Amino acid sequence: MAGNLSNSSLSRLQALNGVFPVFKKEGPTSADVLNALKEALLREAGVTNPNPRKRKRQCMKMGHGGTLDSAASGVLVVGVGNGTKMLSAMLAGSKKYTAVGELGKATDTLDATGTVALEKPFEHVTRADMEDKLKSFVGDILQVPPLYSALKKDGQRLSVLLKQGQKVEAKPARAVTVYNITLQDFSPPLFTLDLECGGGFYVRSLVDDLGKALSSCAHVKSLTRTKQGPFTLEDVLHEDQWTLGHILKVLQSCPGTDQTTAAHSEVNPGTDQDNTL
Known about the structure:
Elements: H1 2-14, E1 18-24, H2 30-44, E2 62-64, E3 73-80, H3 87-92, E4 95-103, E5 105-107, E6 116-119, H4 127-134, E7 139-143, E8 152-153, E9 156-157, H5 158-163, E10 174-187, E11 190-197, H6 203-213, E12 218-228, E13 231-232, H7 244-252
Parallel strand pairs: 3-12
Antiparallel strand pairs: 1-3, 2-3, 4-11, 4-12, 5-6, 7-10, 8-9, 10-11, 12-13
GO molecular function, one term: tRNA pseudouridine(55) synthase activity
Keywords: Acetylation, Cytoplasm, Isomerase, mRNA processing, Nucleus, tRNA processing
Domain Pseudouridine synthase II N-terminal: 54-203
């Protein structure tokens, strides 16, 4: 009976195709979350001692549609089976974030995980000043990605190279799109932004640039992705919901999802999609 149940679960797992959102908490990397999800599903299907990081014969293909910083939380879109082909649309589509920034301190990583590299007065900054400066960051703008990022040089992430003590040059400024920014709260030194942007945008760079524009400095204290593509925080599966049953329910409500074709591919960590936040 247990064997039949295991075989049934494995068959359903192999047939998964589509995209669905999970909640990424602060701490683990996006790849860590993906691997934990794979392990939970393989364990439920009766695949013993799964090691999702190794390229070995398994029963599904899975990737995510855009890296979230390890210190960030929120919506992480996952593609499974043929759904991995849909992730490029998630990378290019609009995303929404809530960011809490702190004036007066800049860090080397541009967020709270880094070392304070600069401190400047911020008492002169008013709410009106900040709202005025934020207008210049809306629309099609040029942005320099942070050094500590998922971007790569010679196949290695810049953040990894920096941690190894290697010298890394900043990537050139590139065009990004910001659809809107709202200052939700202003309680110096803290402030809260809600924003919607396109692919390739870094909230950390925005907050750093905003601090400079205000003749001070700033870094991101906390960051939450509240929406990616059609998915919001209300739609995400939390860790205790990483089961075949919950995922099937979400996939059934996914536009364009096809549950009739089985995907007998290898679990491939290389399908992880890097989005530059």
